[in-house]
Amino acid sequence: MKEYTVKEVASLLGKHEETVKRWIRAGKLSNSYRNSDKEGWRILESDLSSLNKIIVPVGTTEQNPYEQVKSDFDDTGLIKLAYEAVTLASPTDDIISILNVAGIKRTLEILLIMQQSPTKVKNPNGFIKKAIRENWSPDSILVTIPRKQGKHLYDLTQQDYNPIHNNESKTYKQQVHLYNWLED
Fold first, then answer.
1. 128 with 79, same domain?
2. Both 9 and 55 in a single domain?
3. What's the CA gap between 15 and 171, in Å, rounded?
4. pLDDT of the residue at 163
């Protein structure tokens, strides 16, 4: 059984050395051992196969199957195409990087929200950033807050008029009590 060092495993898997050490601490590489501080951790080949990764000997030109799938599945191209379909404009590099980090599924959700918006989105970049920041979903309803508008008396409904009328009647309460001499 072949043994690898942390540095070798990190270079073979394309990960950072600290990531491999974190896997060891988390118990993902349970058969790894450490003889001394000088030698460092030794990781058995059987542990690496348990990570569902295939170790390719150094110097060969074969790719890891995981990397082949990733290269075939070009998320950036899909994100760019979806953005162009919804906004009819090319995305900036900034937006592509933001949507790439969010992932293809989340990107499609956000673009669906944008498409279903009752009003035309004037600033798609700001809309996307806000949708990611506030965790909008297609199920959530966008609420538009109306600007303060002074309503004319003829624009008011009865429900709007009643609270206004009740407030006015309370504020103009009659302060002087008149003596009704007709009742005597």
1. yes
2. yes
3. 72
4. 64
